[in-house]
Design brief:
Layout: H1 2-8, E1 16-20, H2 33-38, E2 48-52, H3 60-68, E3 74-78, H4 85-97, E4 103-107, H5 113-125, E5 131-133, H6 140-153, E6 159-161, H7 169-179, E7 187-195, H8 199-211, E8 218-223, H9 245-258, E9 263-265
Helix pairs in contact: 1-3, 4-5, 5-6, 6-7, 7-8, 8-9
Length: about 270
């Protein structure tokens, strides 16, 4: 990786770089951390960098990438275990130092609440970040609530992906409360989480998107046991009868007709 990145400062045409499933992720850098930070071979041409399906033994390769590519507009790490908080501190420092970054992907990197909280303050105050993909991590309710707190102040984010994060109703409700007043987010993904659909939750969704939120256009959810037949929490209506999937169908129809959502699945 040292050799590859050392050559990149000469590049004046390549805009996008993907490093996928490469054995050199497994190699320790021979440079000391102080040497990495002092490297002056900067590349301002590459706008998109994606690292995927490798193994980072130390933070030095990540620092090396950030020192080399100082003007990225898109950065993504996926399918790499970031098992040390230092990785997230390095990413946070880059978010602070690079005001051009508008898309950040941290997918399947074993990130939980303790790791996300390192980034939350910087993302909350960002005015340039437009897209945030945190899919396939371990945020759960606590992490989702922190994401919701972040959205209270952040007005630039337009797309948020929280697929596969073991989020349940408490996390979802916290997010929906913030979306009542949010005017920036246009796309929200919450597939393959663990929501149990209840009459109360349907009412909350309807209230948010029929009467308050006017910006969101895409909401993709999968309830627990989802697919073709969402699991309904068993409740009794006034006549003493359990409600079933007919209520879901009626609710979906009303949402499609009366809300501003162009794509809505549950």
């Amino acid at each position: 990786m040292d050799t590859l990145l050392s050559m990149m400062y000469m590049n004046r045409s390549l805009k996008e770089l993907h490093l996928i499933n490469q054995s050199y992720f497994r190699s320790e850098s021979k440079l000391q951390e102080s040497d990495v930070k002092q490297t002056k071979k900067e590349n301002r041409t590459v706008e998109k960098l994606c690292l995927s399906l490798g193994m980072l033994k130390t933070i030095k390769p990540l620092i090396r990438c950030f020192v080399t590519f100082t003007r990225l507009k898109e950065f993504g790490i996926s399918n790499i275990d970031l098992n040390n908080k230092m990785y997230f501190q390095v990413i946070d420092n880059y978010l602070i130092s690079n005001p051009n970054l508008c898309k950040l992907t941290l997918s399947n990197v074993k990130m939980g609440y303790d790791q996300f909280i390192i980034l939350a303050g910087t993302i909350r105050n960002s005015r340039r970040l437009r897209s945030l993909n945190l899919s396939s991590n371990q945020l759960r309710n606590q992490g989702c609530i922190e994401v919701a707190n972040m959205l209270v102040s952040n007005t630039s984010l337009q797309s948020l992906n929280l697929d596969n994060n073991d989020i349940r109703e408490a996390g979802l409700v916290a997010l929906l409360k913030v979306l009542k007043d949010n005017r920036g987010l246009a796309k929200l993904r919450l597939e393959n989480n663990k929501f149990l659909i209840s009459r109360q939750l349907l009412g909350f969704l309807g209230d948010v998107f029929l009467y308050h939120n006017r910006s969101l256009r895409v909401l993709v959810m999968t309830s627990f046991g989802g697919g073709k037949s969402p699991l309904l929490r068993k409740e009794m209506d006034e006549s003493g009868c359990d409600f079933d999937n007919g209520m879901i169908a009626s609710f979906m129809q009303e949402m499609h007709m009366k809300s501003l959502l162009k794509v809505f699945t549950i």
